[in-house]
Design brief:
By secondary structure, the chain is mainly β. It contains 1 helix and 8 strands; from the N terminus they run ββββαββββ.
């Protein structure tokens, strides 16, 4: 089970915090259906099916041979792609978005030293829950 987190910057994999997210985006939209009829001057639409998805960017320290390297090696054989995982995006204390998503793309970029930047794209599976307490 993997969990992506926003505000606190952590990426959790199998209950172990292993990386640092530095940006995330969640998009939600509703497909609309045209309900216009002949003779009306303006089009009409009704809401259809909602969907959500987004992306996240984070850093892993491949030089951490006991922790982050092992997880990074496992993620390189991805999460696996297509597997539904829990996602949590923190905005602040008591404010978050949660849902189950499917990772669709993982991009790895090597930087200076052992730091690796990872970009994830994902698509929600089911409803996106919003907690705003």
């Amino acid at each position: 089970m993997a969990t992506y987190r926003g505000m606190d910057g952590s990426f959790t994999y199998a209950t172990n915090i292993v990386g640092e997210l530095n940006a995330w985006t969640v998009n939600s939209n509703v497909e609309v259906m045209d309900s216009s009829s002949f003779g009306t001057a303006w089009r009409k639409f009704v809401g259809g099916i909602a969907q959500w998805g987004g992306s996240a960017t984070g850093n892993f320290d491949y030089g951490d041979t006991l922790g982050q390297k092992a997880i990074t090696d496992k993620l390189t054989i991805p999460i696996p792609l297509g597997a539904a995982i829990a996602m949590e995006f923190l905005v602040g204390t008591g404010k978050k978005f949660t849902g189950t998503g499917v990772v669709t793309t993982i991009n790895w970029t090597a930087g200076l030293g052992a730091l690796i930047t990872v970009d994830f794209q994902f698509q929600g599976s089911g409803a996106l829950a919003i907690t705003w307490a």
